[in-house]
Design brief:
The protein is an alpha+beta fold. The chain is 20% helix and 30% strand. The strands form two sheets. It has a five-stranded antiparallel sheet with strand order 1-10-4-8-7. Strands 2, 3, 5, 6 and 9 form a five-stranded antiparallel sheet that branches. Strand 7 and strand 8 form a beta hairpin. The protein is globular, with a radius of gyration of 22 Å. Keywords: Membrane, Transmembrane, Transmembrane helix.
Length: 212
């Protein structure tokens, strides 16, 4: 009876210790959860894995004349700052560094010819991307409109192990409320289909202010 009681006491102490550690991590801001990224229902791609800083990530067809309107999202505070970007899922993960540097990198497809990461060794002729995006208020009126052709003017972005993002532009200081993005494709870029293009509502890479 004493042995059984001792075993129960040890289990209780172990459970209490685990709870205390979890509580301490939560207080310290170290409670890790898979980020929630809005996307289309039934989308098979784990968008939070590829675009963890995004608020929204939806697949898009880069075909001239195609119009894509995202699901609604909420801006909670007037000082929020967001970037609109194209996201691409890398296909070159298994390639060696030398192979990437010698024309095999996906950067040869996602970057325009005048962008810093575009390698001289690239042998493909990228179609680039030319898209217009609009921030729509809940009543359908346009709050912000921008367009980007990365064959004419370079775009910033990020280069990750699994994904590449190219920034189209961004917006800030909008009234709290419900919004959507409407994207219009201005030029065909079917050559980029293999990179699974997505439209992203993303947190700016350099931003001193915190988004909600």
């Amino acid at each position: 009876m004493r042995k059984a009681g001792g075993a129960i006491d040890r289990r209780i102490r172990a459970a209490s210790a685990a709870a205390a550690v979890a509580f301490a991590l939560a207080l310290a801001g170290c409670w890790f959860l898979t980020p929630r990224v809005l996307t289309v229902p039934g989308h098979p791609l784990p968008v939070a894995q590829y675009f963890p800083s995004a608020r929204l990530a939806e697949p898009i067809r880069l075909r001239k004349g195609h119009i894509h309107t995202t699901q609604p999202f909420t801006i909670k505070e007037g000082n929020e700052r967001w970037a609109v970007a194209l996201g691409f899922v890398r296909s070159d993960v298994a390639l060696s560094r030398d192979r990437k540097m010698n024309g095999g990198s996906d950067i040869c497809w996602t970057d325009g010819p005048d962008e810093g990461m575009h390698f001289e060794a690239c042998t493909n002729a990228t179609p680039g991307f030319h898209v217009q995006w609009e921030l729509l208020r809940d009543d359908g009126t346009v709050a912000v409109r921008h367009a980007r052709d990365n064959l004419v003017r370079g775009a910033g972005g990020t280069y990750g192990t699994e994904a590449i993002t190219r920034t189209l532009s961004g917006f800030r200081d909008q009234r709290p409320g419900v919004y959507r993005l409407r994207i219009t494709v201005m030029r065909d870029a079917k050559e980029l289909d293999f990179l699974k293009p997505h439209i992203l509502l993303d947190r700016p890479f350099f931003d001193a202010r915190t988004n909600g």
